[in-house]
Amino acid sequence: MTSSKDVMELTKKFTPPPRECDGCTVCCQGWLSAEALGYRFFPGQPCHWVGCSGCTVYGDRPPVCQNFQCGWKESHFLPEWFKPTESNVIALWREWKAEELCEEGENGTYLCLSECGKSMTVKHMTWLNNYAAAGVLNVKYQYEGRWHWIGSDAFCQWNCDGAVPITADDKEDKEEPKEVKLERARNADGTYKADDPSTPDINEAWVEVEETTKPQ
Question: Model confidence over 69-81: pLDDT tens digits?
Answer without folding.
Answer: 999 999 899 999 9
